[in-house]
Amino acid sequence: MAERMRSGSQPATDMTGEDFRKYGYQVVDWIANYLDHVGEMPVLSQIAPGDIKRHQPDHAPDRGESMDELLADVDRIILPGVTHWNHPSFFGYFAISGSVPGILGEMLAAAFNVNAMMWRTSPAATELEEVTLAWLRRMIGLPEDFGGVIYDTASISSLVAIAAARDAVPGLRVREEGLAAPVDLAMTGSKSLSSHAALAQGAPRLRLYCSEHAHSSVDKAAITLGLGQAGIRKIPADPEFRMDPLLLERAIGEDRENGWLPFCVVATVGTTSTTSIDPVQQIADVCEREKLWLHVDAAYGGSAAVVPEMRWVLDGAGRADSVVLNPHKWMFVPVDLSVLFCRRIEVIGRAFTLMPEYLRAPGADEVVNFMDYGPQLGRRFRAIKLWFVLRYYGVEGLANRIRNHIHLAKDFAAWVDASSDFERMAPTPLSTVCFRSRPDDLGPQSRAYQYSPGDCECYLDLLNEALMANVNKAGKLFLSHTKLNGKYTLRLAIGNIRTTRSHVERAWNLIRSEAGRIDKQLRPATLR
Ligand code: PLP
What we know:
Bound molecules: pyridoxal-5'-phosphate
Strand content: 5-15%
């Protein structure tokens, strides 16, 4: 070994291959051990805010430290501060998994460390992205004319889709002129303003539609794209939390009369609170009549379409302009990997392509350069972890696992339904159950409820909030919540590859016993 930075320690370049092997094997062993035992750790990190920072010096070390020290600190400092999304009893938000093939793919992506901005900056990254997304498109039954692009998150996929929708509005030259530019109203189909008035006032304001249950990433996209929060109109949902297409159509008509320029509808397949599935076919009818871009947010629910008998969840999505699905949610690919499918992928290209001189390359026009399909230039080699997962489990293997999660959720929902002390708060079309503790003697027919429904509801909110806090604090499982019709609602989301029936049974038993215990402690005398 020639050059050393300081006596006997690190070489002047990178770690030696010999040391890499030593520590690499050690890290793989560590990961294998961690995954074998993650179920014994508290799901939710038990540390207090600031605990990790307290263990760190104010400055980075002047001289390199040993790998042994570093790895020891992973156990000592980092591990206690991790909330274990890999835990089989992680049931919060949407449970996810870093499956082992995905972890191995991620390791290779880090090792190659390519920047997949253009075909030539790593042909394998670009072509594997094209191949894996074509496979995925067929797995979920989208038509062949949909092209795909990988982004980090659904938030960015939806942002790009909505930017493309804006770019597709005829007569609106936002890319060239910005949002306040004069617009050719005859082309946009806007009814109420004369061209003269429109010029005086700037372009008509764009309006996007989604259900009141759409994910907040749609709001963030509207904020980022300059539509403003006023540029979103939330359409009320039906009693099963699905967008009402009649109200959608009425809202679009009203807005046109009032000088807005409707341009895009976001339908959701698997809403975040309840996993409700918007009626995409009927929404597509409205979009076709009104000539609006239809974006389908299937970030979570789209994975269910891999299961043949669940294919229906994406009914109508083939008529959309764009569809987002997150393999990092419910397809066992480690975070982050979101896929945007777009029927006219060239519209995204038109919205974002720019070719500065320093990126010009011979033959670049004949290949796909994914930098042309979004705001960012640099891109990770994400497709390789998707490729590993798709090949290792196969379509059937993935379908079996997803189907099993749906069955487990149906079982949990049935236990809730059969209990007189609990109630289900929403239908369970996929693998997430919305429910709450509602002791039998506080049911709608009870004397307490008849006498004072307001006090009862208030107490039930408190009870469920305390139930969730206690269960999560104990660290045996992790739940999250939402509010449905103003009522505090617990969510049990099944999606981790390591979750089995026994984890779900244990969760139910624990939730039931804790609910009884907390009710005894918490219930005010007036409701006894
Ligand atoms: N869309 C839906 C329906 C979601 O549930 C979520 C997150 O849970 C998102 C979008 C945002 O996902 P991401 O974290 O990939 O941005």
